[in-house]
Write a structure and sequence with these properties.
8 strands, globular, DNA-binding, eight-stranded antiparallel beta sheet, single chain, alpha+beta, 209 residues
Length: 209
DNA sequence: AGTAGGATAATCT
DNA sequence: GATTATCCTACTG
């Protein structure tokens, strides 16, 4: 089946279809082992597009197959593939994968002891690929942009176990099991529950008196 | 092995 | 002004 066709379907199905695919950018090729689905207005409170169109989320309302790269925690970029039919927001976060080509380039961008940590986590993956916000709005499926996405050459053998569970570090909708990964892959990142940060600095949360 | 805290800036309320 | 779809280092057992 066509990859773009799969991306046009429901985001959770699209997410599953993306496992095993190759993402290429900056001379590095990564085989995806872990992804998360985020869906549209109203349905999924964890989606950036949940509250509707904003300058940032505009891309998610466009056609599938385009890159949505957001900046978070003051220092990290995370790469998403826009999914679902045009007009209906949705995206799949590329969380982790195995570097299958361009290991040297990936090592150059990320200083790690173990190669398995090169793209184990969404910000690490984006960094290994050298992807940042400039890729937002470019196509990942027609070869015109800096990032490209392809199905594995021979289709993935059936019987490869796909696991699912709650999304990592997400505050909203902790029970939605929209994180998908390939069982037994060492490059899958560790699960962490969302931890609200204690208020820093001023303690005047509620003024005494 | 597991947890705790800090870094640091865009985005939205 | 609060919040954040993270990562790294340092500390504890």
């Amino acid at each position: 089946m066509d990859l773009l066709a799969a991306l046009t379907g429901p985001v959770d199905a699209a997410a599953r279809a993306l496992l095993g695919c190759r993402v290429a950018a900056g001379g590095v090729v990564i085989r995806l082992t872990e992804v998360e689905a985020y869906s549209g207005v109203g349905l999924d409170a964890a989606s950036h597009a949940h509250r509707g169109r904003t300058p940032r989320t505009e891309v998610m309302f466009g056609p599938p197959g385009y890159a949505y790269v957001y900046f978070t925690y003051g220092m990290h970029w995370c790469l998403n593939v826009v999914c679902g039919p045009e007009g209906q927001a949705g995206a799949v976060l590329l969380r982790a994968g195995e570097v299958v080509d361009g290991v040297e380039a990936a090592r150059e961008r990320r200083r790690v002891r173990d190669d398995r940590d090169l793209a184990r986590g969404p910000a690490r993956l984006a960094q290994a690929l050298g992807v940042d916000g400039r890729a937002t709005g470019t196509s990942m499926v027609d070869g015109s942009g800096p990032v490209s996405l392809e199905s594995p050459d021979p289709a993935p053998p059936p019987g490869v176990a796909v696991r699912c569970g709650p999304r990592v570090g997400v505050a909203a909708e902790p029970d939605r099991e929209w994180r998908f990964w390939l069982a037994g892959e060492p490059t899958v990142s560790a699960y962490r529950r969302h931890v609200p940060r204690p208020r820093r600095g001023g303690d005047n949360q509620s003024p005494v008196r």
